[in-house]
Amino acid sequence: MAQRDLADRLGISTAYLSLIENDKRLVAGSLLRQTADALGVDLEFLSASRDARLADDLAELTSALGLGELSGTPSTELASRHPQWARTLISLNRNLQEARDTALALSDRLNRDPALVTLSHQTLTEITAIRSAAEILAQYPTLEADERKRFVDIVATSSDRLTASARAMLDMLEGPDALVPASTPAREVEDFIIDHGNFFAAIEDAAPAIIGQLPEHGLGLSAVLAARLEDRHGVAVRRGNGASPAGGDRIMTIPTGAPEPTVRFTLARELAARELADAIEEIAGQAAFTSREASHRARRALARYGAGTLLMPYDRFHEAAETSRYDLAHLQGSFNASFEQVAHRLVTLRRPGAEGIPFAFVRSDPAGNISKRFSLPGLRMPQFGGACPLWALYAAFASGDRIVSQCVAMPDGQRFVFIARQVRKGAPSSAATEARYAVMLACDAHYAGRLIHADAAGPITQAGWECRSCPRPDCAQRAHPALNLSARPRAVIHNTP
Amino acid sequence: MTARILVAEDEPFIMESLSFLLRREGYELTAVPNGTRVLDRVQAELPDLVILDAMLPGKDGFAILEDLRRADFGQTLPVLVLTAKGQEADRNRMMALGADAFVTKPFSNQQLLAEIARLLSARNAQGSAKGKPNHGP
Questions:
Q1: Residue A141 and residue A138: Cα distance in Å, rounded?
Q2: pLDDT at residue A8 in the model
Q3: Chain B residues with CB inside 8 Å of A140's CB?
Q4: For the residues B26-36, what does the mean pLDDT come to?
Q5: Which residues span the domain enclosing B103?
Q6: Nearest to residue A269, comparing CAs of A284, A291, A252, A245?
Q7: Could you tell me which residue, A472 or A97, shows the higher pLDDT?
Q8: What's the pLDDT score for residue B119?
Q9: Which residue of B has its CA nearest to A67?
Q10: Are A312 and A345 in contact (CB under 8 A)?
Q11: Closest residue in A to B106 (Cα–Cα)
Q12: Residue A112, pLDDT score
């Protein structure tokens, strides 16, 4: 009988029949009966093929568990004689695979925190117990009923414990009281900046005095900064490539061919480190860094912050941002700054009483490694990469030097505006030394009316934070299966994940 | 003669599965759930093989292995270490202390049984060379 004829007689489409024939859809109940009637075979014949599928699934399971020699007859026998047990085993195996994926996903995020190490050890212990018991169930079909029950109980209890430890891990990573200690100096400094809400009043307050002393410069600011470094601090600024010659901090080398925004920023950072040293010390001195490197990094980060305040003075920058509706390209032009510098400065517009739009910030390389990020409450930037592939952050790499804007809706209904652009670092003349990143700003869609980039955002993208926490079943871009977190209330998102 | 295996493992479910497996395979088993008692039990029972969990309460696998290799009854005893840590550092440390084999959790039963069989047959080969009786499952 032709496929179309059979489909017609069953009152279903040929496409659906095709899915059934290829085991993509289960057929049962009246449809199964009708099919048997239409084909002139008895119900058992069709059910027998289901047993065969069950046996195939079992064979797949035994081979997945490395029990290859068990495939074949025993799995067919188990499928036909104990179909319930066979199905139980298959679903246990599926759970085991999911648990293993969960453990892997979580171990990705593990750092050296002892509490997390303990939890991950517990998780592995539960997985070991489940795997061992499940294998015994699969491997010894002649188990006594009480033995069988005992191992099924072990699997069930261990699964519950596994769920509990996985939740404890998630709570520890995301929960409100759970500050996972920073694992690297870079992350420690990141947390330090986030703890200060990306705003350092002492530096902002000290900057105008320095700006006031700079002579009128038009667009020749880098010459003015270089002159001040030389006059006041005895630092000679030279152009060239390669390492600075001997002379320590008395000679500064600016790479030949570096774009003007980079030159200005480098000089301003040097000046900030020297002239805003008191403010920087006041802030960094109060923090308890766990290593000398973290402490040095923090001071360098504060010097970069200081450079931002010198090149893009708060009040003037804030006003320009508001009047241009946060037009990043316009701000780049007005302040002769790079996209990343402007994006960075926008994040710092948090002065009480004169706040700009609250933005989160993230910078990624083309492989998805995150090298800089600032989260906001409710707007969590990924810590280890692997954010939702639908984010403009990733589209920016395929958009040349164009600014990409996007309005996204998260699975829980929250909406955000994303503004991203690719940025290049390193010598523009040599492809070998050029690095590419994408920088993205993100804010609540509530502020869309104040943002020129939201006008061009196009239709709303149904996105997520990252695949594992995203329940959208029909996403074509899904990279990882979703973890089943339905029993767990959505985590309250805090700025320190 | 049946090979005797001492299992030092604190997690009851894993112990239960191991007991079932090892007995099914024809081994005799001594279960020791606490690190502090392992050495005494090894001395009392003189098993053919020890399966040692690296993270035991009371006294961890590293310390036990160290003491075992110092004691005259434990110098040549095959020791298979169960570790939840796949990290090279831990393995290297265990190796330096004289572990004969590692199985990383979550292990497959087959893999574990294969390692046990391998270690026992190596011991038997050594044993017959020295004129000791053969042990088999």
A1: 6
A2: 84
A3: 24
A4: 92
A5: 4-129
A6: A252
A7: A472
A8: 95
A9: B110
A10: yes
A11: A128
A12: 42
DSSP-assigned letters across all residues of A138-182: HH-TT--HHHHHHHHHHHHHHHHHHHHHHHHHHHHHHSTT--PPP
pLDDT at A27 over 70: no
Whether chain B has a CB inside 8 Å of the CB on A143: the answer is no
Asked if the C-beta of A159 comes within 8 angstroms of chain B's C-beta atoms, the answer is no
Residue B103: count of CB within 10 angstroms of its CB:
17
Question: Mean pLDDT of all residues in chain A?
Answer: 81
Subunit contact B14:A139, Cβ cutoff 8 A: no
ipTM of the complex: 0.87
Helix then strand count (H, E) for chain B reads 5, 5
What residue in A sits closest to B105 (Cα-Cα)?
A128
A488 pLDDT above the threshold of 50: no
Characterize the bridge pairing of strands B28-32 and B49-53.
Answer: unpaired
Residue B93 counted as domain residue: yes
- Residues A162, A165, A167, A171, Cα dihedral to 10°: -170
CA A297, chain centre distance (Å): 23
Tokens 């403009």 — which residue? A392
Nearest to A234 by CA among A250, A246, A245: A250
The mean-pLDDT minimum among A86-90, A207-211, B9-13, B121-125 falls in A86-90
Q: Three-class SS of residue A220? A: coil
Residues 6+ positions from B114 with CB-CB distance below 8 Å: none
How far apart are alpha carbons B18 and B31 in whole angstroms? 9
- Which residue spans of chain A are classified as CATH 3.30.450? 351-497
DSSP state for residue A336 in the 8-state scheme: T
- Does residue B134 form part of some domain? no
Judge whether B135 lies within some domain.
Answer: no
* Conformation bin of residue A458: beta by default, left when phi > 0, alpha when psi is -120 to 50: left
CB A394 within 8 A of CB A479: no
Name the pLDDT band for A191 (thresholds 50, 70, 90): confident
CATH code where residue B56 lies? 3.40.50.2300
In whole angstroms, what is the distance from residue A365 CA to residue A360 CA?
A: 17
Residue A364 forms beta bridges with which residues?
Answer: A370, A438
Number of domains making up chain B: 1
Confidence class of residue A101 from pLDDT cuts 50, 70 and 90? low
Q: Are strands B101-104 and B79-83 parallel, antiparallel or unpaired?
A: parallel
Cβ-defined contacts of A175-184 (< 8 Å, 24+): A175/A491, A175/A492, A176/A492, A176/A494, A179/A496, A180/A111, A180/A113, A180/A116, A180/A497, A181/A111, A181/A113, A181/A290, A182/A290, A182/A294, A183/A111, A183/A112, A183/A113
Torsion sign (Cα): B24, B27, B32, B35:
negative
The arrangement of secondary structure in A183-311, i.e. its CATH architecture, is: Orthogonal Bundle (1.10)
Q: Distance (Å) from the C-alpha of residue B83 to the closest C-alpha of chain A?
A: 10
Which residue intervals of chain A bear CATH 1.10.10.2910?
183-311
- In the block, tokens 């996209």 appear at A339
**Residue with the larger pLDDT of the pair A336 and B83:** A336
Classify residue A326 as left (phi > 0), alpha (psi -120 to 50) or beta.
left
User: A351-497 has which CATH code?
Assistant: 3.30.450
Residues A435, A226: Cα–Cα separation, whole Å: 27
Distance CA A278, CA A299 (A): 11
Residue B130 has pLDDT above 60, yes or no: no
Q: Does A133 touch chain B (CB under 8 A)?
A: yes
